[in-house]
Design a protein that fits this description.
Number of helices: 4
Order of helices and strands: HHHEEHEEEEEE
Radius of gyration: 31 Å
Number of strands: 8
Shape: elongated
Strand content: 25-35%
Oligomer: single chain
Distance between the termini: 79 Å
């Protein structure tokens, strides 16, 4: 046979369409999927990245420039005793060598507004000689201006021939 084209008022169309329409109406409503930006990394991971950027700035532009870029106005640094960091770096010369460091541990406060990082540091003299090595502790504070260092201390000043920074993944929230 020849297919029959029905009009909207044809009862055959209504009886065939009604079950399909009812099935469609009875289907559960699917929520609309909204794309959201990925969540920010955990604060401890942010602290590691801040430390890595801070160390890169020291390697590229010198320790003095790196510290002046990141120190909070009220920061304390150990030189070797506690002093106001900005005043110390603004009034003093840059180090006579390349200061580098790498975080091997980082942790953040429950509120996410403070973080600490610690790891080895290395000062390689420009004039040659054995590098000085030790460990550091940096305390970071988040404010409206972003993350700033509020405390930085380097401990130990041991000359170690051939010293290098280890390339290990930092422990987070240790």
């Amino acid at each position: 046979g020849v297919p029959r084209y029905a009009s909207a008022g044809d009862p055959a169309v209504l009886t065939r369409a009604a079950p399909a329409t009812a099935d469609l109406l009875l289907q559960p409503v699917q929520p609309v999927v909204r794309l959201r930006p990925p969540p920010p990394p955990p604060v401890a991971a942010q602290i590691v990245e801040l430390e890595r950027s801070f160390a890169a700035a020291s390697r590229e532009r010198g320790a003095r420039a790196a510290f002046l870029e990141i120190l909070a106005d009220d920061a304390i640094v150990l030189q070797p005793g506690p002093v106001f960091g900005r005043a110390q770096w603004e009034s003093g010369p840059d180090l006579q060598g390349l200061l580098d460091w790498a975080p091997d541990r980082a942790q953040a406060s429950a509120a996410g507004d403070l973080g600490i990082a610690t790891g080895p540091w290395l000062l390689t003299p420009r004039a040659g000689g054995a590098p000085l090595a030790g460990r550091y502790l940096t305390v970071w504070r988040r404010s409206e201006a972003g993350w700033r260092v509020v405390f930085d201390g380097g401990f130990g000043r041991t000359a170690i021939a051939g010293a290098k920074l280890p390339a290990t993944a930092p422990a987070l929230d240790f």
